[in-house]
Design brief:
The complex is a heterodimer of chains A (about 375) and B (about 450). Chain A has a single domain (about 50-360), classed as ABC transporter involved in vitamin B12 uptake, BtuC, CATH 1.10.3470. Chain A is about 65% helix and about 5% strand. Chain A has 13 helices and 5 strands. In chain A, strands 3-2-4 form a 3-stranded antiparallel beta sheet. A two-stranded antiparallel sheet of chain A has the order 1-5. The longest helix of chain A is centred in the N-terminal third of the chain and has 32 residues, at about 50-80. Chain B is mainly α and about 450 residues long. Chain B has one domain: Orthogonal Bundle (ABC transporter involved in vitamin B12 uptake, BtuC). Helix content of chain B is about 70%, strand content about 0%. Chain B has 16 helices and 2 strands. Chain B has helices at about 1-25, 30-50, 60-85, 95-115, 120-145, 150-180, 195-225, 230-250, 275-290, 295-305, 305-310, 315-345, 360-365, 370-395, 400-420, 435-440, and strands spanning about 55, 55-60. Chain B has a two-stranded antiparallel sheet with strand order 1-2. In chain B, a hairpin with a 2-residue loop joins strand 1 (about 55) and strand 2. In chain B, helix 1 packs antiparallel against helix 14 (about 370-395) and helix 10 (about 295-305) crosses helix 12 (about 315-345). The chains are: A mainly alpha (about 375), B mainly alpha (about 450). At the A-B interface, helix 1, helix 6, helix 11 and helix 13 of A face helix 6, helix 8, helix 13 and helix 15 of B.
Chain lengths: ~375, ~450
């Protein structure tokens, strides 16, 4: 129970002995940080365009992680559950769009329905409808998962829900692995729209086939712009929902104190369902964008991005929406810079190393509020 | 024939769980000779079952024996995790990482020994001993200056262990040439290449692997155990993933070409026999049981129940968390070492992210805070998943085996929804039961004092 500071009469603090040898730990951390910084800066000075390219790639990854991390952070904020199935909801989003585009050609419907429509408009509307379909499917899936696997266990020990989350995650992965659903193979993903890429070398130029790109230039594509725009828009939308709407107020109340929220007439179960749904919708969006951007999908595609996104949410301070965003951007940078400058296989390991170090310095994450009770 | 096979699998599963019940029952509060007899009987029954035949068919096929060994290693890992999570309340996902560390460590020792190279055993053996001494020495020194922050303490421990490791590598390399001639040549094997010596080295390698895992867990646990419960869980998950990554690149990032990175380590001598598996399982059962039922173990339990109250009673909360974590990882390392030597082939994929949840699932299934549950659940789980589901689906067609992992999570979900506290809850069998102290003191029954404490939920 958090007590406001003013309610406590000011007590003269006992003089506490400063812990001895504290500088050793800090020196260790600072040396570590300096070492990493030195590697990046020295490489950056040697080849600035490569560094800029890496930072750009890191941003792209970070924005995708941000979309997934929102779902983790909101769900954890309200039900204190590490929703391991969230990464697989992300995967289902990617798959829905794959089936919609490659098998059913959904992205072509505007040009079929209204033959006179312009090409550009048709692609935009078609792609948006594919994305919306994925978001709807993910939302429905998440609500089903919540009803079936988590709701009956709300009063059980928390570990029970965690185990069912792992169970759901296994189920989605291995069900996707089945021969008639999909297979365990990687399959090239058919994008609903064409990739357009630009390079920056004394101005922005479009990359066209046949014309050679200058070797020393930074490239980016329309996918990067779309991911960035989507991620930032979602961020603003979510801030609006949480801060300005009634359901957002209910969400904040439920995450603060569930029994009291119930007493105030809030339907907590519906709020929880809504939280799962909205997180899943953003994960679905992220799944489509991730698949378009990395161009191949597999049923276990959701595991590592899901995990990274969760780490990002924890890094930023779990329960905090801007924290998830910042954490995701850090995670994306860390991953790409590690792969670029230190060692490619260690890219997954570095995320966790950073997490551990940040948590040791600030135990509730970067934007996390200090926990009320001291254990 | 198929149906009888299926039934036989179920019978084996039930029989082994009953066997565990019998073993624990026989070990509990009995005169020493009865305990010895129980151990002999328990060993003998399975050994006889290996030899049993119906017609021409072996009852316990080689496949079933593999399952049995797997169940034994799983039981060790699960007991370790149950100590960390069920009894101390620290939600850890690193158990699988320590299992992998133990497996690769022991496999490397015996692999090198098999190829006439004693450096593995020498380096790890000396390193483990020196590392232990170094850790204890630093701990003693740090205790002189009270209240050293965790991060600084970690730095000192890290320096000490790295120094010990360097000394061990140098010493091991220096001593190895002296031993190498004793291996003889391939035509005239020397005394160190004999089969008996191989068994001794195997035993040593398992213990070295356990100690190595324990020392790694000490270094990792020291700073990370200060984090809150779920944060600790994520950090441990990260540890498991780091271990997997390192194993995946053991030939490039680490200087172990014989581990062959992601392709998997081959040629590990298959030394695990039923004697070894049983001895180590029994040892782990006794270690864990005696740990929990000691005063240190009761302190561990009190930390789970309420950290603040435990601290108020004068219990060293951080130390008791660390101790439980180290003992749990030690046991996982032992399990990994035994596993490596019955399977004969190690692949980093085995120690990946998804199978890493298996110990957790087993422990929750068996009942958090019930060691008997953890052991029984490991046997039941291995025989259900690998034995029963595999043979059931094997009859349904070629694609059926992939259905195994579709049915498995559904079973998991169903069981969790029906019995969220696990199969056994906190019930213990025979040997694992707490002594009824009051009864022993007063010589009279004293109500439910012997029953296990109420399980507090939460990660």
């Amino acid at each position: 129970m958090p007590v406001s500071r003013d309610a406590i009469p000011s007590i003269p603090r006992l003089s506490v002995r400063r812990p001895p040898l504290a500088w050793v730990g800090w020196a260790f951390l600072i040396l570590l940080a300096l070492g990493v910084l030195w590697i990046i800066v020295s490489q950056g000075v040697k080849n600035p365009t490569l560094l800029a390219q890496n930072v750009l790639d890191g941003l792209k990854l970070g924005f995708v992680y941000a979309l997934i991390a929102l779902g983790y952070t909101m769900v954890y904020g309200i039900v204190k559950l590490i929703n391991f199935a969230h990464g697989d909801v992300f995967m289902v989003g990617a798959f829905t769009s794959y089936f919609a585009v490659a098998r059913f050609g959904l992205h072509k419907w505007p040009s079929l329905a209204f033959p006179g429509i312009g090409d550009g408009l048709s692609i935009v509307i078609g792609s948006i409808s594919v994305i919306i379909l994925s978001m709807v499917v993910c939302t429905l899936l998440a609500i089903t998962i919540e009803r079936v696997a988590y709701k009956p266990l709300r009063d059980a020990p928390r570990i029970a829900a965690l185990i069912t989350a792992i169970g759901v995650s296994f189920f989605l992965e291995y069900f996707g692995n089945l021969q008639f659903v999909y297979t365990a193979r990687f399959i090239p993903y058919k994008s609903p729209f064409d990739t357009v890429a630009w390079y920056i070398s004394g101005g922005i130029h479009r990359i066209t086939a046949g014309v050679e790109t200058p070797s020393n230039s930074v490239t980016f594509s329309n996918i990067f712009l779309i991911i960035m725009a989507a991620s930032i828009l979602v961020q603003i939308l979510l801030q609006f929902i949480v801060r300005r709407t009634k359901i957002g107020m209910a969400m904040r109340a439920s995450s603060f104190d569930k029994p009291t929220a119930r007493l105030m007439g809030i339907n907590v179960d519906r709020v929880i369902s809504f939280t799962f749904a909205i997180g899943a919708a953003f994960a679905g969006l992220g799944g489509v964008l991730y698949a378009i951007s990395y161009a191949s999908i597999t049923p276990i595609l959701g595991i590592i991005p899901g995990l990274k996104a969760f780490v990002a949410a924890v890094l930023g301070g779990i329960g905090s929406i801007p924290g998830a965003f910042v954490g995701a951007l850090i995670m994306g940078q860390a991953e790409v810079l590690t792969a670029g400058y230190i060692s490619t296989p260690m890219r997954d390991a570095v995320a966790f190393t950073i997490l551990i170090i940040v948590l040791l310095v600030k135990p509730t994450g970067i934007f996390g509020e200090p926990s009320g009770e001291k254990a | 024939m198929e149906i009888t096979n299926l039934l036989l699998t179920v019978v084996k599963m039930v029989a082994l769980v009953a066997w565990i019940y019998g073993l624990l029952w026989g070990l509990g509060r009995k005169p020493l000779w009865q305990k010895a007899l129980t151990i002999l009987l328990a060993f003998g029954i399975v050994q006889t079952a290996f030899l049993l035949k119906i017609g021409d068919n072996q009852v316990f096929t080689a496949f079933d024996q593999g399952l049995l060994f797997q169940a034994c290693t799983m039981a060790m890992v699960a007991m370790g995790l149950n100590l960390i999570y069920g009894f101390n309340g620290q939600f850890s996902l690193a158990q699988w990482g320590f299992y992998g560390i133990g497996a690769y460590c022991a496999a490397d020792i015996t692999w090198r020994w098999n190829n006439g190279d004693p450096t593995g055993l020498l380096v790890v053996g000396i390193g483990v001993i020196l590392g232990g001494i170094a850790l204890m020495g630093v701990g003693r020194l740090l205790r002189l200056k009270r209240g050293v922050p965790v991060l600084s303490a970690f730095t000192f421990y890290l320096i000490a262990i790295v120094a010990a490791g360097l000394v061990a590598v140098l010493a091991g390399r220096a001593l190895a040439p002296a031993l190498t001639p004793l291996f003889g040549t391939s035509d005239v094997p020397g005394p160190l290449a004999s089969a008996a010596m191989q068994q001794v080295v195997f035993g040593l390698s398992v213990i070295c692997a356990g100690c190595f895992a324990a020392e790694v867990s000490f270094l990792f646990g020291l700073p990370v155990l200060t984090l809150g419960s779920d944060y600790f869980g994520i950090a441990t998950l990260g540890f498991a993933i780091v271990v997997k990554t390192l194993l995946d690149n053991s030939d490039t990032l680490l200087p172990f070409p014989e581990m062959k990175g992601g392709r998997g380590m081959i040629g590990i001598p298959k030394l695990t026999t039923w004697i070894w598996a049983f001895v180590f399982l029994l040892a782990v059962i006794i270690i864990i049981r005696n740990f929990i039922r000691s005063s240190t173990g009761r302190a561990t339990l009190s930390v789970r129940e309420d950290e603040i109250a435990a601290k108020a009673m004068g219990i060293n909360v951080a130390g008791s968390k660390l101790l439980a974590f180290v003992v749990g990882s030690f046991v996982a390392g032992l399990g990994g070492a035994v596993y490596a030597h019955y399977i004969g082939f190690l692949s980093p994929a085995t120690f990946g992210f998804l199978p890493g949840f298996n110990p957790l699932i087993i422990v929750v299934f068996g009942g958090l805070g019930s060691m008997s549950g953890a052991i029984a659940a490991s046997f039941g789980w291995v025989f259900f998943l690998e034995g029963f589901l595999r043979s059931l689906l094997g009859q349904l067609g070629t694609e059926a085996p992939t259905w195994r992992f579709v049915l498995y999570p559904l079973t998991l979900l169903l069981l969790m929804l029906l019995r969220p506290q696990g199969l056994l809850g906190t019930v213990e069998w025979g040997f694992m039961k707490a002594d009824n102290f009051i009864k022993r003191l007063k010589g009279a029954p004293a109500g439910p004092a012997g029953s296990a404490p109420a399980e507090k939920g939460g990660a």
